[in-house]
Amino acid sequence: MQAKIFFGSSEATKENLSERKSPYNGKVVSIAPICDEEDANKALRIAQDAAKITKKSTLSQRCNWLLDVAEKLKANKEDIAKTITDEVGKPIAFARVEVDRCIETVTLSAETMRTMAGETINTDAMASGKKTLSFFRRESVGVVVAITPFNFPLNLVAHKLAPALVAGNAVVLKPTPEAPLTAYKFAKLFIESEYAIADALSVVYGDAEVGSALITSDIPRVISFTGSVPVGNIITKNAGIKKVGLELGGNAATFVEKSADLALAAQRCALGAFVNSGQVCISLQRIYVQVEVYDEFAELMAKETQKLKIGSPYDDDTFMGPLIDDDAAERAMGWVESAIEEGAKPLLSPHREGRMFHPCVMADVRDDMAIVCEEVFAPIVSLVKVDDFDDALPRMNNSPYGLQFSVFTNDLSITSRAIDELEAGGVVINDMPTLRFDIQPYGGVKLSGVGREGPRFAIEEMTEIKSVVIC
Length: 471
Known about the structure:
By secondary structure, the protein is an alpha/beta fold. It contains 15 helices and 24 strands.
């Protein structure tokens, strides 16, 4: 029940502790030490020394390390899934899916690193050159700082730890305060593995003080952060000269064209808008529907939404559990009330019971309403009527965010234009923009972030290229 600090391979705790209460029933589900700047700096110094060892370790050891962790995850799947549900209220069925995805992420990182290599360079390709033996290779950067959010408290940690460690780096992890025990249990699998490299992973807990100490230090060479735009801005301004990878907010949109399979579109849009109670950076928030099919789609969307079970996250058939805290639930109701005052119409009656916020489909939404301009991070989706793709395209792009968009259409020309003209890090055709495969490059443009995740792409972010010329 109690998470502990990992100063490298050594566990520690403190007198000052914080309790994490379940967002579903308010019971204390975990306890974690309250860390400070001194703890952060100690972890960084240990990582700095460990990085000298990790850099010299063999790739086979590091790959075996990750594969061993993947096997231990399989053996501990139910316990870790329940811990996720305890700490963040994620329905148990989806918590199990997150563990499965984490296993894949860790495994993919090992498999990817086995085949990543540099290449030879033809230095005599230009008249100014000459024949040499020239090549480049990838080397570890040294120390990576990983800062992770609450909505995927296991798999988003894996997307940072696994690529960083298999690439030969040492890591200091600061997990979300909402799920300290999930991160602790995961980190413990790495640290207790028979293939572990001593002191290569440290874990500290905290908010602004700890985060500031980690990002402003000269020790780390990479900061990998997933979270909000305001915090991302702070990191960018204060990190100094080092690599900074930012996975930030989104305002995912889709266009439903008249040739699309409307039943499929409604079913997938309901999933994309309301999975994890809308607490996903690529949650579907805006649906632009061609006028000819708007009424039919709206009716289908309402019906699909009504099928979703809201209730105890411990029930196997629950689709939606609670929002993360009271502020999130109050903010969600505020979004809906504001939109209604501005003229939008809820297709289902807005309903909140404490942190349980029932999914809400808003119709007759206009582009100037706050509910489509900002990231709501709640189970709310808005329907906007448009004439055609030419009408929808600038509206979809008119956002400070650009993480993932999608279109539902059977028109090949619209498919081609969507791929070329939508301003986003990812475009999905005939499915929700919330679709993500852990093997793919993932990240956004504009305020949605800098850099890409996914094992191969994270390894590239967490390594340096060294050029070699032998004359």
